Structure formats: C-alpha cells, structure tokens
Amino acid sequence: MTDPTLPDNGALHRVENAKIDSYETYLKDKHRPPSRGRNGRAWHSHVIKIDGHTYSFLGLGFRKWAYKTDTISFEWQ
User: Fold this and answer.
1) Are 65 and 76 in contact (CB under 8 A)?
2) How far is the C-alpha of 48 from the C-alpha of 76, rounded, in Å?
3) Is 36 in a helix, a strand, or coil?
4) CA 19, CA 23: separation in Å to the nearest integer?
5) Which residues of 18-36 are buried (b: 16+ CB within 10 A; e: fewer)?
6) In DSSP terms, which residues pair with 23 in a beta bridge?
7) pLDDT, tens digit, 9 for 90 and up, residues 37-72
C-alpha cells in the first residue's frame, strides 16, 4: 500500500547542503535507573527540522549526530 501524502513513495530523496533549524532527541525505550546504565545507549528518536520540513530517525543514544551550525546532506526514503 502506498502513502498518497508522500511524493514518489519508496523513492530515494536527497537533501543537500542544508542548514538545521532545530534538532531534538526523545527517549523511545523505557526509562532506566542509574544502576542499569541510564539511557545513554537507549533508543532515541532524533528529529531534525530543515526549511519547515521534519525528518526523523531512530538511533542509539541521545547524543546529536550534527550541530545546529553544521551544513548537512543526507538521503531519505
């Protein structure tokens, strides 16, 4: 089934030389206490906004993969 809200569903798209408007991370795993290693290596949702568009991916850890001052390029599907 295709999603009519996405252009060319399943096609590979590219964002090139983009400036980040905002970058947030949100915990997706269950909260862990300090004795269990906290949440540093838990799954987090990384949400990046560029020119009014929102892109997200799941990654291990809360550390950001790019800084707001960076220019980034990436492919998405």
Assistant:
1) no
2) 13
3) helix
4) 11
5) bebeebeeeeeeeeeeeee
6) 48
7) 667 778 999 999 999 999 999 998 888 989 889 999
